[in-house]
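Entry type: protein chain
Record version: 2
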Amino acid sequence: MNIQLTGSSGFVGKNLSNYFKERSIQVKPLFMRNSDWENSFDADADAIIHLAGKAHDTSNTSEPFEYFSVNRDLTIKLFNLFLNSNIKDFFYFSSVKAVADSVNGVLDEKVIGNPITPYGKSKFEAETYLMNQALPENKRLFIIRPCMIHGPGNKGNLNLLYNVVKKGIPWPLAAFHNQRSFLGIDNLSFLIGKMLTSDLTSGVYNFCDDKTMSTNELVKLIAEYSNKKEKLLHIPVGIIRVAVKIGDFLPLPINSERLQKLTESYVVSNRKIKDALGLSKLPNSTEEGLIKTLTSFKGDSFI
């Protein structure tokens, strides 16, 4: 099997490439930063996995048009090449944030999209275009909506939380009670591998681990893994919300948007993809995936 991959130099791209190579699946990177990237398009690949995109900038320094030119317009160009090629499968990595910036209850694929940010809107507009195109009978379109992805090589809020706990700094947001869905990179790679070799029909599929975890539970897991005593500081929510507003105007480590990302509940359902592939559960538990990620932060090898 021959896979064409955009975004191969990113966190997900590197891990997915390694997953394929370990299974003797040929991976051909497509570098869309190059002005002549269309000349490198392989019209005879078996599948194309489109990971490349502009990630959400929590510092809010990016201009809105940057998201649309990359996440929407480049995706449209790539998809049109796919339609006129011999490639069977097109995987578009969107995001749960393409349809919902916040979630009440559990997010499934039936939700009517209502993105708020330029990032979410650009992803949603790309999804809408792809789904509105006539697809030849011999081709499949998969729109993947992952929640927060983590694993070795990933730097983000999980890494920030790890460093806070490891240094013995009390977690000051313990008064916020939430539940969040996570997605370990190994579960992501497993699902893509299964989809490639299945007779699955085109559609939109959420990706997440089987179980959720609260931020306080995550702090406890990190503390236990780091041989530290958990320190949960219950500062009143109202005081925290007022204090972080300073970061909305000054370059501080936390602002209102980052506070929301750290404390909100965001529960996603993976029932549709598991049912479609005949799976009762994913190979790695939420805890196993998080421990592997934490191990990479620590610099140890994972066995």
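Comment: The mean pLDDT is 93.
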